[in-house]
Amino acid sequence: MALLEVRNIKKNFGKTEVLKGIDFELEKGEVLAIIGSSGSGKTTLLRCLNFLETADKGSIYVDGETVFDADVEYNDNEIREKRLKFGLVFQSFNLFPQYNVMENLTLAPTLALKKKKLSGVEKKVALESIDQKAVELLERVGLSDKSNAYPCELSGGQQQRVAIARALVMQPEILCFDEPTSALDPELTGEVLRVIKGLKGEDHTMIVVTHEMEFAKNVADKVIFMADGVIEEIGTPDEVFGAPKSEKTKAFLSNSLEKI
User: Fold this and answer.
1) What's phi and psi for 6, nearest 5 deg?
2) What is the DSSP letter of 27?
3) pLDDT for position 209
């Protein structure tokens, strides 16, 4: 059974049909790269997966559990609970400027802890565990010396690596990236891509919306090319990049690869 199953996801904004019926599956530990021109629906799809937008039709399953069904109305608590299955790293970092790096990482799990009925001792142990996890993640992304720094004191690449660590601290089953390098200068792009590549080696399941074609070719297990709100082509990197079937895919790749 696939870890993630997406079935017939549709999304309209007014009269504009942005997603026209998206279907795909993702196995545990796989990396999916989603490519396509601006306006093709890539980011909207990620936002629907993370419950930042509500799809008008369709369903989403994680590890056999229905986490979204357009025919079901969910309350805020249910949405918050289901959202925890996904982590999202935004293209513009979205760190809290008033908090230092360590506080950015520990804020969400600490708030979640407050909702649990724990004894004083249990709470103390849990808080220590959160801090330890944050320290480990900062080391993993190469920023163990920046725990007390504030976002304004970090480069764009460092901020994005903090954002990745912040998403990981909640231990999502599926980690999503929305153009994680688009706000970075070229010299900072490599450090972020290396972190994402390293996560693949640790068997994380990931969806990466990206304009980095070489990264998609070399790291992804599966590639989706989206155009006009549909999946125009899906396959392995060799299939999509090496032998595309769709004329739209061929035109997009020809234009994209010329810019590399």
Assistant:
1) -115, 125
2) -
3) 96
Q: What domain range is 83 assigned to?
A: 4-258
In the chain, what are the helix, strand and coil shares in percent, each to the nearest 5? Answer: 45, 25, 35
φ, ψ for residue 40 (rounded to 5)?
-80, -15
Q: Chain-centre distance of CA 133, in angstroms?
A: 20
pTM for the model stands at 0.92
- Three-class SS of residue 228? coil
Q: What is the pLDDT of residue 115?
A: 79
Q: What is the pLDDT of residue 257?
A: 62
Q: What pLDDT, on a 0 to 100 scale, did the predictor assign at position 101?
A: 98
Q: What is the largest CA-CA distance in the chain?
A: 62
**Residue 219 is which amino acid?**
V
**Which H or E run includes 88?**
strand 86-89
Q: How far apart are CA 31 and CA 3, in angstroms?
A: 12
Of 80, 69, 18, the closest CA to residue 43 belongs to: 18
Which CATH number covers residue 130?
3.40.50.300
Number of domains in the chain: 1
* Side chain identity at residue 38, one-letter code: S
Which residues in the chain show pLDDT less than 50? 260
The pLDDT score that the predictor gives to residue 260 is 47
The single-letter code of the amino acid at 142 is: G
Q: DSSP alpha helices (H): ranges in the chain?
A: 42-49, 76-83, 101-114, 120-140, 156-168, 186-201, 213-219, 237, 247-258
